Amino acid sequence: MHWLKTILTRPLRWFRTGLPMAISLPMALAAALLLVGINEIGYDRSANAVRSIAAAQETRAHLYQMLLRVLDAETGLRGFLLSGDERYLEPYNSAVTDINQRVDVLRQIYGPLSPDNDALTLLTRHLSRKLAEMDLSLKLRRQGDTQAWKSIMLTDIGKVHMDAIREQSKALIDQATAQMNDGERQVRESLLLSRLGIAGTALIGLTGFYLYLRQSNALKLAGDHQQQALEKERDRLETLVRERTASLAKLATHLQNVRENERAHLARELHDELGALLTAAKLDVARIKSRLGDSAPEALQRLQHLTDTLNCGIALKRRIVEDLRPSSLSNLGLLPSLEILAQEFSQRTDITVNVKLEPVQLEESAQLTLYRLVQESLTNIGKYAKARQVHIQLLNQESQARLEVGDDGVGFDPTRINPSSHGLDGMRHRVETEGGRLIVSSSPGQGSLIVAQLPLALHAA
Fold it and tell me: Would you give the DSSP letter of residue 392?
């Protein structure tokens, strides 16, 4: 059922967490592209509209100036006609030149393909007629034909041409004004489009940001749930490890106690049964030897060899019994037992052992732990250390007994001990079972030091 639940909840989890991410990223990208596109379109339209407005303003300016220059030319010409003063011709000539230049500029602005080119052509034609009419009046005045130029002035032909010029100019000005209004409308539309685009983009961005926050919150909640689940699982595993460790420690303690009890039982059996047999055999040999006297030297020699063999067997039995369960520990106490153990080790290995022991009050099991620790340490020193000197110290500190076993041998690296070797682990377990602490200090070529600290017995003085 668990796998079925996982299969059914996985699409829902993806819909809650993966779908917002899958939507928010494309939305953010689309919003960015849309904003760039709207800005580009708005910029192009605004730029075109500004150019159109500028051209329309320039056209209107030229048309207004051209009307003013026509009036200037007409005013200057009438002044000359009435007074004959050549000074009035200066504004006239200047106005005529400026009119022609502005006509050329207007032709360039409109161009040959402009839809307003016909209106400009008609305006140019009326201007030409007006200029021709004023030029004719000027020539007649200079020729002295007063009746002729006066008759031209009294006719309505000048007014007709001027009205036509004003009408065509007004038409072109109105068209330029309409072009300016259209440009302004395009600018307003571009600004409105930009505002709408920015608002839409902001809405899309906010929506994407909302989805992102929602997805982030969902991920955070999922992470918190997962963290809580991991913490619960870790706590469960830690509790299980502690329980298993405590169970294994109890089992190891039980096995250690069983082994010590078996050793004690075997030591008693060897001491009682095997000791009695060997002693009886030795007594029988002594009786046989006393009865033979000196009559059978060869038999006496055999009996003596048998006696020596029995003595060796008794000594071997005693050593085995002491290794299994030191009787000196029960009969003499911890300090004499350690001195005997150190003396026997020194005699057996020719290694100098320096012993410094202080009286301590320990429980019987703690005394046995220290004895076994010294025994195991001396065994390891004899096998591996290649030491010349060993020191054993038992110190009575404030609330604990401190045992030190050190040597000047080759040493070892405590972090690279063979996993199949359990000597140090067994020592540490023994010490920790008694509520103490074991410290192992060593390095290659610097010897080794084993320190055990055990609490004193409650009834200690």
Answer: E
pLDDT in tens, 102-112: 888 877 777 76
Domain(s) of CATH 3.30.565.10: residues in the chain: 332-455
pTM of the model: 0.47
CATH architecture of 332-455: 2-Layer Sandwich (3.30)
For position 433, what pLDDT does the model report? Answer: 85
In the block, tokens 């003595």 appear at 311
- The CATH number of 2-223 is 1.20.120.30
What's the pLDDT tens digit per position in 43-91?
Answer: 777 787 788 788 778 887 878 887 888 888 778 777 877 777 778 778 8
DSSP state of 92: H
Buried b (16+ CB within 10 A) or exposed e, 225-259: eeeeeeeeeeeeeeeeeeeeeeeeeeeeeeebeee
Q: Which residues contact 210 (CB under 8 A, 6 or more apart)?
A: none
Residues of the chain with CATH 1.20.120.30: 2-223
